[in-house]
Amino acid sequence: ILLYISFFLIQGYTWIHIVRGFDVDLSLHMGLNAHTFSYISRYIPGGIWLFVTINTYAHYLGASKRIFTTSLLINIIFILMIDLIYIVPLAVWGCGLICLLLYYAILYLAPFILKIALKSFSRFKILPIGIEPENFTSPNRIYRLLNLTLIHQVLQLLAYFIFIASLIPFDTSHIAYITIAYAISWLLGFLVIFVPQGLGVREASFIVLTAPIISSEVAIALSVALRLLTIVSELIIFAMVLIYDKLHPTIPKTT
Q: What does the buried/exposed string (b/e) look like for 65-96 if buried means 16 or more CB atoms within 10 Å of the residue's CB?
């Protein structure tokens, strides 16, 4: 649970770092608030609440709604780029060198991918007026964001690995495979925003991906247990944010 909470908080900090890249003076406290409440809102059916909540916070803080939305989309793009590294070992087991090469390839290609995405946002009037894609795609900024994303995704992977290892008596290679399969399932559930927290999508994907090594009954039991781990961890984070807000009320301030 502590590893998952660490993953969640660093993911929130990564989003804050992206927002600050647009010259918005967003405090760590209010940024984590916005990230936590927008993430928790995904439990509500409808698929729009993630963006509604983040835009509500932007309005409350006096910040640009487009900047908050763009930062959220950029965060998702970075998660996708880092999580591609998981797909390779799942398809070709035991390819650590390929994973390393893939990481450096993503590091090299990230500025081009992000520039294309920002130009698309600009075309669809998502990118804030006056923001040029070239100003946001410096190598140093890309490197920091990729490594922040890598850190929080690895923490998530470790949390799942330790939890699965405590539940099933498989050897390490099978547990690693199952862990990576669940990480990919989590990503698929994360991307299907119209389903509350990817409910059903994550579990179905996990059962399909782990079919070569475990039975569907074991996969279902594991997916339920991992879902409970996620819910309990996120409820703890939500409670922490509420308690901190109660003890340290702040006046919103952004520029």
A: bbbbbbbbbbbbbbbebbbebbebbeeeeeee
Per the CB < 8 A criterion, the answer to whether 182 and 86 are in contact is no
Residue 203: Cβ-neighbour burial (10 angstroms; 0-12, 13-18, 19+): buried
Burial of 39 by CB count in 10 Å (0-12 exposed, 13-18 middle, 19+ buried)? buried
Q: Could you tell me the two tokens for 214?
A: 């475990």
- 3-state secondary structure (DSSP) of residue 13: helix
- Residues in the chain, overall count: 255
Q: Which long-range contacts (CB under 8 A, 24 or more apart) does 55-62 make?
A: 57/30, 57/33, 58/34, 60/252, 61/26, 61/30, 61/34, 61/252, 61/253, 61/254, 62/252, 62/254
Asked if 140 contacts 155 with a C-beta cutoff of 8 angstroms, the reply is no
State pLDDT tens for residues 112-156: 777 777 777 666 566 555 555 555 667 777 888 888 888 888 888
pTM: 0.81
